[in-house]
Amino acid sequence: MSSGRNRSRVNEPYWAEIYAKGNTGVFWDLVDFPIPECDPYLISKNIKSTLEDKGCQNGPVSIQLYQDEKNLLPKELIDKYEAAGISINFVPDIPEAYGYARDHKMLVDILRWAVDSPIESNLIVLSKNLKEELTVCVIQGLHDRGYNVLLAVPTEEIPFTESSAWLWDGLCASLSSDGSRSSQHVDNKADTVAVADSV
Fold this sequence. Notes:
It is built from 6 helices and 6 strands. It has helices spanning about 15-20, 40-55, 75-85, 100-115, 135-145, 165-199; strands at about 25-30, 60-70, 85-90, 120-125, 150, 160-165.
C-alpha cells in the first residue's frame, strides 16, 4: 500500500484550502506542449481561469514559458507577454546540455520560485524531458518538503504526481473556443456590412 505522502494533494479537501492560499508556479515547455498563437493577455487569463476551475489558485501565479531559439518572437510580442504577466524564455540548444537546455533553465527558475514561495504552494511543470538525476532530485525534494508538485508527464523516477496535462488541455480548449467566438464576431460583422451595402 502506497503512502499518502506519495500522492498529489491538490484535490483532497484537507489540503485544498492550504494549497489554494499558496503561490502557484507554472513552468511550461512550449516545444513539448505548444499552445495556439493568440493574444498573450488571453493566454494569461485562460491559464489562471483553468487553475481557478481546478481549485488550486488563490494566491500569486507565476507563469514561465520556455521556447527554443529557433522560434524567436518579435520584441513587440515579447513585451505583450511581459505586460500580461508571462515571462517567455528563449533558450539556445547548446551541445554541452545534451538536449536538456530548456530543462536546465527551467530548473534554475523553479529553484528561484521555490525560495520566494511558502511550502504550501503548487508547482506545475509541463515538460516531457524531466529525466536528469539533478532535476529529479530537486523536484522530489520540493515534493518531500510539502510543495504540491504536478507534472504533465509523470515518470518512473517521479511517480507520485498527479498529471498537470489538464492545464494544457483546458488552455487549448478555451483558446479554441475564444478563437471561434472571435471568428464568429468577425463573420457577423462582415454579414452586417454586406447587408448594409445592399440596402
